[in-house]
Amino acid sequence: MAPVTFFDTHCHAHFSAYKDDADIVIQETLDAGTWMILVGTQSTTSANAITVAKRFPEGILAAIGLHPNHLHVMHFDEDELSVQTRSERFDPDYYDALAADSHVIAVGECGIDLYRLPESLDRTEVLETQKEQFQLQIAFADKHNLPLIIHCRDAHDEVLAILRETIAAGGVKRRGVVHSFTGTWKEAEQYIALGFFIGFNGIITFPPRKAAPEAHEALLEAVRNVPLDRLLIETDAPYLTPIPKRGERNHPAHVRYVAERVAQLRGVTVEAVAEQTTQNAARLFLSSRSL
Ligand SMILES: [Zn+2]
Ligand 1 centroid to 91 CA: how many Å? Predict the structure, then answer.
């Protein structure tokens, strides 16, 4: 196997978008020297992340958790891929059995999403359920000594409040990453102060949205300012395909385009970004292993 060059810390190469060629896509990624974490979003995709990871001798790990979008029945399009969610609740006994597998290196993705809300329910009620399910998964992560992979959309105040409160009480011991970060440097800074990593993906390669160019500039400011030893790269494949592959299904090996954009924005070499972010991923997720 090629030496580890890049580490895609968040992809879903086990999702149905790859039902015909998941193993080919994963092998291509490993051949490109890229390791990856397959991230679960509900009970079935969490179990399947482990099943797929087990088919390869190394370079592929699994995260298990329940995404806030899967707490209620919803249907939406994510990057032109249609997503149907069920109404699930986090079952610690079910996930305990999964966490026993050595491929499992994180809990997630879990968190709070106030961008996509079910139409039929009251926002306050949805937020309460999301908070409760997030706290349950934080406790689960502490029980298994695992870091968190946090999904947060339009909810940084809520997520930060929960993290601060839990950390003050001695929890969130292994900390984690705020994945697919799209906030401002001010928001990123608060997670960093708490000991978290910030994960960037193809969104940082996109042109600014005409409706909100200042939001994009604020995100790029975060990419420039996050200390390099706290920065992680990811694809979120099959979603969020980076430029120059826009329009195609995303691929975990495309994480190198994210690294290139980080390097360009910070005025450093792509090798420096690759080396540091790979070390960061190892430090956060593989602290008991060696690359
Ligand atoms: Zn994801």
Answer: 20
**Would you say the C-alpha torsion 119, 120, 123, 126 has a positive or negative sign?**
negative
Centre of ligand 1 from the C-alpha of residue 63, in Å: 11
The pLDDT of residue 121 is 87
pLDDT of residue 82: 77
* Domain architecture of the chain: domains with CATH: 6-285 (3.20.20.140)
For ligand 1, the distance from its centroid to the CA atom of residue 208, given in whole angstroms, is 22
Name the nearest CA neighbour of 196 among 62, 1, 9: 9
Ligand 1 center–CA 81 separation, angstroms:
13
Nearest to 146 by CA among 91, 65, 201: 65
Helix (H, G, I), strand (E, B) or coil at 282: helix
Backbone CA torsion sign across 206, 208, 211, 213? positive
Give residue for tokens 């990811």.
234
Which residues, given as ranges, of the chain have pLDDT below 70? 1-3, 79-80, 288-291
| 48 Cα: distance to centroid of ligand 1 (angstroms) | 15
Which neighbouring-strand residues pair with 238? none
**For position 193, what pLDDT does the model report?**
98
Question: What distance in angstroms lies between residue 109's CA and the mean position of ligand 1's atoms?
Answer: 7
Task: Kindly give the distance from the C-alpha atom of residue 100 to the centroid of ligand 1, in angstroms, as a whole number.
Answer: 22
